[in-house]
Design brief:
This protein is an alpha/beta fold. Helix content is 32%, strand content 17%. The chain has helices spanning 33-37, 55-65, 84-93, 104-110, 117-125, 152-163; strands spanning 2-9, 12-19, 24-28, 48-50, 102-103, 138-139. It is globular and about 45 Å long.
Length: 167
């Protein structure tokens, strides 16, 4: 069984889908749980019901929104892929620090495959757990904003939020 919950955020509604074990399997800036479930690997899909409360994942998101930009770092995610590069790239993406976005070229280098710029972009595009695996922190090779599943307005808001150090 999985549970979903939606939070109102300054960037728009944010919904996450969590397994009974507490791992996030899908997340994004939408209210459409079905759209999120379509991103979940078939081996991880289960019946999904609304959660009664935000739970620890929601608490982490709210702390992030309140300025603790590392609050989401400890949230456990679960994604499956048949390719080893994607799994590795998603882990590397989690190491990109708030306020320090990288380009697709830089991300490919961090992932150990400097010439695999398209593969780096694919890792962003196939990421089912937005925010927790921060694909919004990857920019076009020229440093400009490029596509984001949840819209460039959301990506812009997230990057601006992470640029401001509340301390």
């Amino acid at each position: 069984m999985m549970h979903s919950h939606t939070l109102d955020t300054p960037a728009g509604p944010f919904t996450y889908v969590v397994s009974d074990a507490g791992t996030v399997r899908a997340a994004g800036f939408t209210t459409e749980v079905g759209a999120l479930l379509s991103l979940v690997h078939k081996d991880l899909r289960e019946e999904t019901r609304p959660a009664a409360s935000p739970g620890p994942v929601g608490d982490a998101v709210l702390s992030y929104l309140d300025g603790d930009l590392t609050a989401i770092d400890g949230v456990v995610v679960e994604q499956h892929t048949t390719g080893p590069f994607l799994a590795h790239a998603w882990q590397v993406m989690r190491e990109i620090k708030p306020g320090a976005p990288v380009t697709y070229t830089g991300f490919a280098e961090l992932a150990g495959r400097p010439s695999a710029i398209r593969a780096a972009a694919t890792a962003c595009a196939r990421n089912a757990v937005a925010l927790f695996v921060p694909c919004h922190r990857v920019l076009g090779t020229d440093g400009t904003l490029r596509g984001y599943r949840w819209g460039l307005g959301v990506k812009t808001w997230l990057l601006e939020h992470e640029r401001h150090d509340p301390s």
